[in-house]
Amino acid sequence: IAAPLLLPLNQFTSLSTRILITATDMLVFSMPPARLLGIIFPNPTEYVEWVIYPGLFVVGALVMSAVSPGVRKKCWGGLLLILGSLVFALGAEIPGMNAILNLPGLNLLRVPPRILFLTGLSMAVVSAYFIDVFLGENLENDLEIKIDPIFFLTGMLAFILFAAGVILSFVGRLEVNYLWGAIGFSIIYLWILARRRKWISSTVWLVGVFLFVMFDLDGINIQSFISRSRTEVVDEGAGVAEYLHSQPGTFRVYSPSYSLPQQTAALYDLELADGVDPLQLTSYANYMESATGVPFTGYSVTIPPYHQESLQSSNQSYLPDIQRLSLLNVKYIVSDFDLVEDGLVLRAKLGEKRIYQNLDVYPRAWIQGETGTGEGYPL
């Protein structure tokens, strides 16, 4: 299905700034090893790239599948992919990862934890094989076991309860995610044990699994939602956006200090010459380097790049080339700091936001005269 995308993908990447990305850029959001505990103890408020919670039934299914030869031989590929993708997600924590990321194809990737997409798919497949086996009536033959896998599941439960106990003893209380993991896995342990001992029928067991998974994942998803009002989301830069929206004509806006956030600009139908985009054309990035005066020292997801933590002051020492911005139809420049350039007129100041008008702006399109850009005529 994806094959038709390979040719345009190859063409685009050769024309984009993605070819400038380094191993350091790729590994900056590597998942810390301690976040692997998120498989058992969900923490939905964590950095989204590090959320790895598959559901407690899946954890139990993985343990049972890994230690049951009858299941393992059916899904060994999925188990290996789970292990490999989890290791890859650790990124900078793995020795030699810099060299691996320099391999063709991998050198275009960014943020190692995004491979957890494959982890989730593989966990679903392995869990499906486990369910299929556990629905059978002849579990002993289907599992092909010498040691009862419940023994290993008991060890997993003991580890979870021990970890929760250690945290309780040190902190004096248990957060919701630790209680969720300890209580939830205890329920799953008893449910799998009940089916293993054939205390309940396969139909009742499957319905119970479905209800538990639904409650487990829905409960964590609900906890992960953060509700924000529409006003709150677009409040930043709203005054500037309203002012610019009221101005006549077709034009673009540029900000060296991210004074007009993209979501606010989009709401007010404003077009930006700057912004955030991990996939940029090299030709445009090079042009904007000369137009903004801000040097591009490597791969950046923003135009212009921000080399300091403070967006408002990061590019204060760089002066834009007004003529080059004019060719991009940049009529207004919004900045959190003063700009002293010929052709710029301060039209408004809203708080710390300064709105400058470019008097030499070119129209969106024009017929070029023979003597140079100064001879342009609007279409």
Protein architecture, described:
The chain is α/β, with parallel strands linked by helices. 47% of the residues lie in helices and 8% in strands. The chain has 15 helices and nine strands. The protein has helices spanning 6-15, 23-27, 56-67, 69-89, 97-100, 116-134, 139-143, 149-171, 176-196, 202-224, 230-234, 238-245, 262-267, 282-292, 322-327; strands at 252-254, 271-272, 275-276, 302-303, 330-335, 344-350, 353-358, 366-367, 377-378. The strands form three sheets. The chain has a five-stranded mixed sheet with strand order 2-1-5-7-6. Strands 3-4 form a two-stranded antiparallel sheet. A hairpin with a 2-residue loop joins strand 6 and strand 7. Helix 3 (56-67) crosses helix 4 (69-89), helix 3 packs across helix 6 (116-134) and helix 8 packs antiparallel against helix 9 (176-196). The chain is elongated, with a radius of gyration of 28 Å. The mean pLDDT is 88.
List the helices and strands and how they pair.
Blueprint: H1 6-15, H2 23-27, H3 56-67, H4 69-89, H5 97-100, H6 116-134, H7 139-143, H8 149-171, H9 176-196, H10 202-224, H11 230-234, H12 238-245, E1 252-254, H13 262-267, E2 271-272, E3 275-276, H14 282-292, E4 302-303, H15 322-327, E5 330-335, E6 344-350, E7 353-358, E8 366-367, E9 377-378
Parallel strand pairs: 1-2, 1-5
Antiparallel strand pairs: 3-4, 5-7, 6-7, 8-9
Helix pairs in contact: 3-4, 3-6, 3-8, 3-9, 4-6, 8-9, 9-10
